[in-house]
Amino acid sequence: GTRLVEARTKAVEELAPIFVDRAAELGLPDGRLAYVGDPPTVAALEERLERDLERGVTGLGPHLHDVSIESGPRDLRAFGSQGEQRLAVLSLLLAEYGLLDERGRTPLLLLDDVLSELDDRRRAILAERIRDAHGRTRLRGQPIHEPGAEVVACHDVRIGDDEHCHAELVEQIQ
After folding, report:
1. Helix axes 82-102, 120-132, angle to 10 degrees
2. pTM above 0.90?
Protein backbone atom coordinates (compact mmCIF):
# COMPACT_ATOMS: atom_id res chain seq x y z
CA GLY A 1 0.00 0.00 0.00
CA THR A 2 2.93 2.36 0.56
CA ARG A 3 3.76 2.70 -3.15
CA LEU A 4 0.10 3.34 -3.96
CA VAL A 5 -0.19 6.05 -1.29
CA GLU A 6 3.04 7.66 -2.54
CA ALA A 7 1.81 7.63 -6.16
CA ARG A 8 -1.59 9.06 -5.19
CA THR A 9 0.01 11.74 -3.02
CA LYS A 10 2.34 12.76 -5.85
CA ALA A 11 -0.51 12.90 -8.37
CA VAL A 12 -2.65 15.08 -6.10
CA GLU A 13 0.32 17.34 -5.32
CA GLU A 14 0.85 17.88 -9.06
CA LEU A 15 -2.85 18.55 -9.65
CA ALA A 16 -3.35 20.83 -6.63
CA PRO A 17 -1.84 24.09 -7.96
CA ILE A 18 -3.67 23.77 -11.26
CA PHE A 19 -6.90 22.95 -9.41
CA VAL A 20 -6.46 26.05 -7.21
CA ASP A 21 -6.04 28.23 -10.33
CA ARG A 22 -9.05 26.75 -12.13
CA ALA A 23 -11.21 26.95 -9.00
CA ALA A 24 -10.29 30.62 -8.51
CA GLU A 25 -11.09 31.37 -12.16
CA LEU A 26 -14.50 29.75 -11.79
CA GLY A 27 -15.30 31.57 -8.55
CA LEU A 28 -14.35 29.10 -5.82
CA PRO A 29 -12.13 31.09 -3.46
CA ASP A 30 -9.23 29.51 -1.60
CA GLY A 31 -9.55 26.14 -3.32
CA ARG A 32 -7.56 23.27 -1.90
CA LEU A 33 -6.98 19.71 -3.06
CA ALA A 34 -5.20 17.21 -0.83
CA TYR A 35 -4.74 13.46 -0.48
CA VAL A 36 -5.92 12.26 2.93
CA GLY A 37 -4.31 9.09 4.24
CA ASP A 38 -1.06 7.55 5.38
CA PRO A 39 0.34 4.19 4.31
CA PRO A 40 -0.46 1.42 6.80
CA THR A 41 2.39 0.00 8.81
CA VAL A 42 3.06 -3.71 8.98
CA ALA A 43 2.39 -3.58 12.73
CA ALA A 44 -1.01 -1.92 12.20
CA LEU A 45 -1.99 -4.48 9.54
CA GLU A 46 -0.92 -7.39 11.77
CA GLU A 47 -2.85 -5.91 14.70
CA ARG A 48 -6.06 -5.87 12.61
CA LEU A 49 -5.53 -9.22 10.87
CA GLU A 50 -7.85 -11.38 13.01
CA ARG A 51 -10.62 -8.80 13.07
CA ASP A 52 -10.35 -8.22 9.30
CA LEU A 53 -10.47 -11.98 8.62
CA GLU A 54 -13.60 -12.31 10.76
CA ARG A 55 -15.31 -9.45 8.95
CA GLY A 56 -14.06 -10.42 5.51
CA VAL A 57 -12.80 -6.90 4.78
CA THR A 58 -9.60 -5.00 5.28
CA GLY A 59 -10.22 -2.09 7.63
CA LEU A 60 -6.96 -0.27 7.00
CA GLY A 61 -5.24 0.88 3.84
CA PRO A 62 -5.34 3.13 0.80
CA HIS A 63 -8.76 1.85 -0.34
CA LEU A 64 -10.19 3.83 2.60
CA HIS A 65 -8.30 7.05 1.79
CA ASP A 66 -9.84 10.03 0.07
CA VAL A 67 -9.10 13.26 -1.75
CA SER A 68 -10.15 16.37 0.13
CA ILE A 69 -11.69 19.14 -2.00
CA GLU A 70 -12.13 22.39 -0.12
CA SER A 71 -12.97 26.03 -0.62
CA GLY A 72 -11.61 28.03 2.28
CA PRO A 73 -12.19 26.04 5.47
CA ARG A 74 -15.15 24.07 4.05
CA ASP A 75 -15.07 20.52 2.74
CA LEU A 76 -17.16 20.95 -0.41
CA ARG A 77 -18.47 17.39 -0.40
CA ALA A 78 -20.11 17.84 2.97
CA PHE A 79 -20.70 21.59 3.14
CA GLY A 80 -20.66 22.88 -0.44
CA SER A 81 -23.76 23.89 -2.34
CA GLN A 82 -24.67 21.90 -5.44
CA GLY A 83 -23.27 24.73 -7.59
CA GLU A 84 -20.00 24.82 -5.64
CA GLN A 85 -19.65 21.06 -5.93
CA ARG A 86 -20.17 21.22 -9.68
CA LEU A 87 -17.61 24.01 -10.02
CA ALA A 88 -15.16 21.95 -7.96
CA VAL A 89 -15.65 18.93 -10.23
CA LEU A 90 -15.21 21.10 -13.33
CA SER A 91 -12.07 22.64 -11.78
CA LEU A 92 -10.67 19.17 -11.09
CA LEU A 93 -11.46 17.96 -14.62
CA LEU A 94 -9.81 21.04 -16.12
CA ALA A 95 -6.78 20.55 -13.85
CA GLU A 96 -6.40 16.92 -14.97
CA TYR A 97 -6.87 17.99 -18.60
CA GLY A 98 -4.23 20.71 -18.21
CA LEU A 99 -1.73 18.43 -16.48
CA LEU A 100 -2.00 15.78 -19.19
CA ASP A 101 -1.66 18.47 -21.85
CA GLU A 102 1.47 19.88 -20.13
CA ARG A 103 3.00 16.40 -20.19
CA GLY A 104 2.50 16.13 -23.93
CA ARG A 105 -0.33 13.64 -23.72
CA THR A 106 -3.49 14.15 -25.71
CA PRO A 107 -6.30 14.29 -23.17
CA LEU A 108 -9.93 13.63 -23.93
CA LEU A 109 -12.42 15.72 -21.98
CA LEU A 110 -16.06 14.63 -21.99
CA LEU A 111 -18.60 17.07 -20.59
CA ASP A 112 -22.32 16.43 -20.50
CA ASP A 113 -24.74 19.37 -20.17
CA VAL A 114 -22.21 21.65 -18.49
CA LEU A 115 -22.92 24.83 -20.48
CA SER A 116 -26.47 25.25 -19.23
CA GLU A 117 -25.23 25.38 -15.65
CA LEU A 118 -22.59 28.06 -16.21
CA ASP A 119 -23.05 31.80 -16.48
CA ASP A 120 -21.51 33.72 -19.41
CA ARG A 121 -18.24 34.44 -17.58
CA ARG A 122 -17.72 30.80 -16.62
CA ARG A 123 -18.66 29.57 -20.12
CA ALA A 124 -16.01 31.92 -21.54
CA ILE A 125 -13.42 30.53 -19.09
CA LEU A 126 -14.30 26.96 -20.05
CA ALA A 127 -14.07 27.84 -23.75
CA GLU A 128 -10.65 29.44 -23.22
CA ARG A 129 -9.32 26.43 -21.34
CA ILE A 130 -10.52 24.03 -24.02
CA ARG A 131 -9.24 26.22 -26.86
CA ASP A 132 -5.76 26.54 -25.32
CA ALA A 133 -5.26 22.80 -24.83
CA HIS A 134 -4.06 20.31 -27.40
CA GLY A 135 -6.46 17.54 -26.47
CA ARG A 136 -9.89 16.67 -27.71
CA THR A 137 -13.09 17.83 -26.10
CA ARG A 138 -16.62 16.59 -26.46
CA LEU A 139 -19.47 18.67 -25.07
CA ARG A 140 -23.02 17.45 -24.98
CA GLY A 141 -26.03 19.49 -23.93
CA GLN A 142 -28.32 22.34 -24.82
CA PRO A 143 -26.50 25.16 -26.57
CA ILE A 144 -27.16 28.58 -25.19
CA HIS A 145 -28.43 30.32 -28.35
CA GLU A 146 -29.86 27.41 -30.34
CA PRO A 147 -33.21 26.27 -28.88
CA GLY A 148 -34.28 22.82 -30.02
CA ALA A 149 -30.74 21.78 -31.01
CA GLU A 150 -28.27 19.70 -29.11
CA VAL A 151 -24.47 19.96 -29.09
CA VAL A 152 -23.14 16.46 -29.64
CA ALA A 153 -19.53 17.18 -30.51
CA CYS A 154 -17.37 20.22 -29.99
CA HIS A 155 -13.65 20.98 -30.07
CA ASP A 156 -12.89 24.60 -30.89
CA VAL A 157 -15.37 26.34 -28.62
CA ARG A 158 -16.13 30.02 -28.84
CA ILE A 159 -18.94 31.26 -26.67
CA GLY A 160 -19.97 34.88 -26.22
CA ASP A 161 -22.09 37.66 -27.69
CA ASP A 162 -20.13 38.03 -30.96
CA GLU A 163 -18.88 34.48 -31.20
CA HIS A 164 -20.40 31.07 -31.75
CA CYS A 165 -19.74 27.49 -30.84
CA HIS A 166 -18.21 25.39 -33.62
CA ALA A 167 -20.18 22.25 -33.07
CA GLU A 168 -22.14 19.59 -34.79
CA LEU A 169 -25.76 20.45 -34.10
CA VAL A 170 -28.59 17.98 -34.46
CA GLU A 171 -32.26 18.30 -33.76
CA GLN A 172 -33.13 17.17 -30.32
CA ILE A 173 -35.08 13.93 -30.29
CA GLN A 174 -38.19 14.36 -28.21
Report:
1. 20
2. no
